[in-house]
Design goal:
By secondary structure, this protein is α+β, with helices and mostly antiparallel strands. The chain has 2 domains: about 5-40, no CATH class; about 45-185, Nucleoside Triphosphate Pyrophosphohydrolase (Alpha-Beta Complex). Helix content is about 20%, strand content about 40%. It is built from 3 helices and 11 strands. It has helices spanning about 85-100, 155-160, 165-185, and strands at about 5-15, 20-30, 35-40, 45-55, 55-65, 70-75, 75-80, 100, 105-110, 125-135, 145-150. A hairpin with a 4-residue loop joins strand 1 (about 5-15) and strand 2. The radius of gyration is 19 Å and the shape is elongated. The N and C termini lie far apart (about 40 Å).
Length: about 190
């Protein structure tokens, strides 16, 4: 029997927060006809940016993450604001706010689903090249960020050592590496 979409039976908003809603959804299995309850997290789409300076340094941000109670080494990124309709503009904004750098060129790397089992959003990954420092950071009140510049030749070692372990960052870096391979093979 081919797979089919699950029919929406009901949906109930359980909790609303600033950046996400928790929803209880009941859906009917096309295979068994059974009604099953699911919990979903509705949140705006996100962006992340693999940003490389004019002298081939990768821009990383180090910040405390409350979920793990640890510091995390990541690429710049964040929520697409409600008034933003263009993910590329949100990526450029997040790069500027979190690092103080502007890009020379910005191009899409791809789109991923952060966790399709419970999250309803997507994460748009971008490559920013020719980045140069133009000012100070403009952090949100809940952010304390330290910018780190790392030679692009050291990225794989940071991944292997576990220094970079954020799943969406790893996915964006894989998309970047894949795009480099595609360019060389043409």
């Amino acid at each position: 029997m081919p797979l089919g979409d699950w029919e929406q039976v009901s949906e109930e908003s359980l909790v609303r927060y600033k950046v996400f809603d928790v929803v209880k959804s009941r859906r009917r299995s096309p295979r068994t006809g059974a009604e099953i309850g699911f919990f979903l997290v509705r949140t705006p789409d996100w962006v992340n940016v693999v940003a490389i300076t004019e002298d081939d340094q990768l821009l990383l941000v180090r910040q405390y993450r409350h979920g793990t109670k640890q510091f995390s080494l990541e690429i710049p990124g964040g929520l697409i604001d409600p008034h933003e309709t263009d993910p590329a503009a949100a990526a450029a904004r997040e790069l500027r706010e979190e690092t103080g750098f502007l890009h020379g060129e910005l191009r899409p790397l791809g789109v991923m689903t952060p966790n399709p089992a419970i999250f309803t959003n997507r994460c748009h990954a971008y490559l920013a090249t020719g980045c140069r420092k133009v000012g100070d950071l403009h952090m949100d009140p809940g952010e304390d960020i330290e910018v780190q510049l790392v030679p692009v030749t050291e990225v794989d070692a940071l991944i292997r050592s576990g220094a970079i372990d954020h799943a969406l960052v790893l996915a964006a870096l894989a998309m970047w590496r894949s795009s480099q391979f595609d360019t060389r093979s043409r």
